[in-house]
Amino acid sequence: EAQVTQNPRYLITVxxxxxxxxxxxxxxxxxxxxxxxxxxxGLRQIxxxxxxEVTDKGDVPEGYKVSRKEKRNFxxxxxxxxxxxxxxxxxxxxxQGLAEAFFGQGTRLTVV
Amino acid sequence: xxxxxxxxTEISVVEKEDVTLxxxxxxxxxxxxxxxxxxxxxxxxxxLIRRNSFDEQNExxxxxxxxxxxxxxxxxxxxxxxxVVDSAVYFCALISTGGGNKLTFGTGxxxxxxx
Lengths: 112, 115
Fold this sequence. Notes:
The structure holds two protein chains of two kinds. Chain A is mainly β. Chain A has strands spanning 4-7, 10-13, 19-25, 31-38, 42-51, 54-57, 65-66, 76-78, 87-94, 102-103, 107-111. Chain B is mostly beta strands. In chain B, strand 7 and strand 8 (64-69) form a beta hairpin. Chain A binds chain B through residues 31, 33, 35, 40-45, 48, 50, 56, 58-59, 88, 90, 92, 97-103, 105-106, and chain B through 6, 33, 35, 37, 43-45, 47, 50, 91, 93, 95, 97, 100-108.
């Protein structure tokens, strides 16, 4: 089954404790991205990657890191999480940048 | 810069009513794509439609239809004979060739369909 898989689905952590949210797709898509969803703001892009070893900032990259060492994986790293990073996070992939994006199930992160 | 505006924050209808969700977009590019996604209460994002800027034909898929008008920069979504299962947040989104391959979302419209 074609899918984008994020882990974990839910995470509660403390301020400053490094964490990684994993994202994997099995569709051989070149383009992957991360979004955060906040009430009243819709989804905003954090980072995107057009291919292996090619990443770029989206609208709200501060406090996040990403890497794309393999085509299928695109982890999101929060080196020092803060409460304002409490949000619902989505990973997405698409065949190319202008195609429809397929989203993971979402990761609800709470930073206390 | 590109922007998507969904002015309707929340709409409530009674089952079987028709409902239209509005989407207005801004972009300076001539080549762009518009999308609608559905987010049901379970939280996942479900792709509904993709439309490119050169195709202004309206599209119908079952009870769903989309009206794309470049003259008013709008891409509205109509659900005919709404059902309770249509209750969800609906997002309109835009991506353009000059927009850095960034999918820009509107803030979403919460649709509640009641019996």
